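Handout, tutorial session.
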Amino acid sequence: MLLLALDTATPAVTVALHDGTDVIASCGQVDARRHGELLLPAVDRVLTEAGLRLDAVTGVVVGIGPGPYTGLRVGLMTADTFGLALGVPVHGVCTLDGLAYAADLDGPFVVATDARRKEVYWARYADSRTRLTDPAVGRPADIAAEVAGLPAVGAGALLYPDTFPRAHEPEHVSAAALAALAAERLAAGVELPAPRPLYLRRPDAQVPKNYKVVTPK
């Protein structure tokens, strides 16, 4: 097994290689405006570090969000392209699950990433491998009662200490955690979901109301 994992659902552009036992190379950079520019060089960097070629990859793992439309689709389209070119399966993993796995907490906790517009993408977890709720988006004040008293990880939690007073790192997801979680689930015979994006909001760019289409006669 050689899994290539990547995620662009948060401001972090992160890539890793996992051989089924351990992460053998990884890299990441936080830049919310350069996902498309940074992702492929990051893939090349981890392959070079591992001394491997792209055609050695046997599967691709990609974070499916939730996340902003533009950033999220960069990783998903890249993963799909690699899968088609190499003829290997592409596995989707919830980005929040990757953060939860990296947090490595035993008791109940919350993962929250920055959804902008003064909102967070969030979910509750029983432990680092077990999600209790579907990913959702909401204002911190509106979900305060649901997360009260729980430890929290992620950039969204760190941004709103009034709602998440027990927030701590990791701040962003790492492809290393995504890859390790995917490898663990695959080894256990768990079927991972198809790489379909978790869009919890409509994209910012929309066709204006009363838009008139002008066609030549």
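The second record follows below. Compare its token runs with those of the first.
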Amino acid sequence: MTALLLIDVQRGFDDAAFWGPRNNPAAEANIKALLGAWQARRDPIVLVHHDSAEPDSPLRPGQAGNDFTAELDGARADLVFGKRVNSAFLGDVDLDAWFKRRGIGSFVLAGIQTNFCCETTARMGGNLGYDVTFALDATFTFELAGPDGTVLSADELSRATATNLHGGGFATVTSTGRILG
């Protein structure tokens, strides 16, 4: 059985003034397509939200930005929980134990941000022995400056994540169309 794991699909990521330029404007439509397919099949769906402790973060609990986006309205989730770090495996719920109790050995991962919470969760899932499918076109991220001040675009960071996950054997990196095809 394959679960759908949606990471941090939250309204706070709409704050362009806070986050900066993003990539992949089709991510939300692809997330919604994956969710619709999993709901139609009644396969397991897990929704995770980031509960930031940073005082200026739009993802702080109790703020509108902590809420899921409209694409998840009406979602029939089997599990919903928060986390305060990048990996969903280190959240308020023991996701590994939850998967194992249900006989779930594989998951499709999508959400926000490609190179942080999504990539970290995929790496941990791979390390824990799960068959991880990373829906790259159902994720997005933002440009980011490195330690030397060089700014990498969101597309460059997304490509680096795909390379890291593929090259490291952590996940199968593919598209929403191939997953649903």
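Points raised in discussion: The mean pLDDT is 98.
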